[in-house]
Amino acid sequence: MVPFGGWDMPLNYAAGTLAEHRACRTAAVVFDVSHLGTVRVEGALALERLQAVLTNDLDKVEPGRCQYTHLLDETGSVVDDIIVWWRTPELFDVMPNASNTDGVVAALGVSNEKLQVNDVTATRAILAVQGPNARAMSSAVIPEAASIGRFRVAEFEFDGTTCVVAGTGYTGEDGFEIAVPAERASDLWRAITSVGIEPAGLGARDTLRLEAALPLHGHELGEGITPLNAGLEWVVSWTKPGFRGRDALAAQKAAGVDPVLVGLLIDGKRPPRAGMAVLRGGERVGTVSSGNFSPMLSQGIALAFVHPDVAVGDCIQCEARGSLLEGTVVHTPFVAKH
Question: pTM of the prediction?
């Protein structure tokens, strides 16, 4: 168990991070991700408020769907990356990262007779079932949850208790995430693991998301990093009349985005680490934002912010305590979805 965003979270279980990672890529695992926040936004003005605050356009989807989006500051930096669960026409569950819930509540503003904004994180747990066999294995105990479509959201009954399931995840594999009332979380966990779905911790969650080239707040997103730097312009709706940080993003796009995020594949097993310099031809061209050993590729991989003229196929080196790790700029994700 380790401290994470104000929570005590499991780093790994008995099998260890490598085994948990491989189980997710080949079968199915379940994560406790209750550290994710849930900010409930409801009322006649809920949609209007979310549209004014977040970068993506909820009009692209509809009730019963989920959407990935960003909350920015006035400089265009990503305060948080968020999944919105649009449950009914006037009910949204906004899912921030562990330590950013208070900031998201503040950005959404005060409640009134037509808008209620409430942090309900403490009332529920979130269990994420992920892997190519996640649906088939879990269908014996939670068939309604197992049948949820990708980026869909719906309620279902677990042993007389109403839960919410969304076809989302953070591993690069198929699967879903369940919001269960906190007092029933242990029962649901036992039901899921009873069919052979293995538990997995934060260690595997990080190596899985890195193989899938998914951003981590504080590394690929955060202060001084915009959606454009992170290669996530698709979450920015330029057609919306305005949201916080839009003008700064527009100015950055006009001037040219620098730096940009790329993938690095290292020749050996030793991985680069965050903060290491990236060199090309002996000249520094960027900085590693995340790096680790890939259990599926058996070599080091990394994401790095680099000068925009760095291209796929370029040979690079990462400075590692007096030595150089040789590698190549590659397309991401590093590991394709199974």
Answer: 0.96
